[in-house]
Design goal:
- The chain has 136 residues and is α/β, with parallel strands linked by helices.
- The protein is globular.
- β2, α2 and β3 form a beta-alpha-beta unit.
- It contains 5 helices and 4 strands; from the N terminus they run βαβαββααα.
């Protein structure tokens, strides 16, 4: 978890660490990364998320089962900022792929209210539930 925008509480960081410990054990090394940034420069939110996920190498390298939740504070498109959920190829053709956009949308209410920690926890828990369902 990297909170470059400095918007998440320490309890949020702990919750994500605990969630990842469970996922790694029970879901073949799956992991959820969280990244917050002030802006993405010349990259779109999606491209920035994909690049960051690839750089971090989230999840098991053999399963490619990492997920990245990105929060961006300043967006040229959205007044309130932007967010995105991206995932490794190990989740192609699964419910996680088909629901990624809906999972990201679970942050909308908290994000608009600037409750970024709540937004991340809500999204991460939903992503974790979806990962668990993929692995049965």
């Amino acid at each position: 978890m990297v909170d470059d925008a400095n918007i998440l509480s320490s309890s949020t960081k702990t919750a994500i660490e605990n969630l990842n410990a469970q996922l790694t054990q029970q879901c073949e090394g799956a992991q959820i990364g969280v990244l917050t940034v002030d802006y993405t420069g010349s990259l779109s939110t999606e491209d920035y998320a994909v690049q960051a996920a690839n750089t971090w190498g989230l999840g098991s390298s053999s399963k490619n089962n990492g997920v990245l939740i990105l929060l961006v504070m300043e967006s040229p498109i959205y007044e309130d900022g932007d967010y995105y959920v991206t995932y490794g190829n190990g989740f192609r053709n699964t419910t996680l792929e088909s629901q990624a956009s809906a999972l990201a949308q679970t942050m909308e209410g908290d994000f608009v209210n600037r409750d970024y920690s709540d937004a991340v926890i809500t999204c991460a828990n939903n992503v974790a539930d979806t990962i668990a369902s993929v692995y049965g």
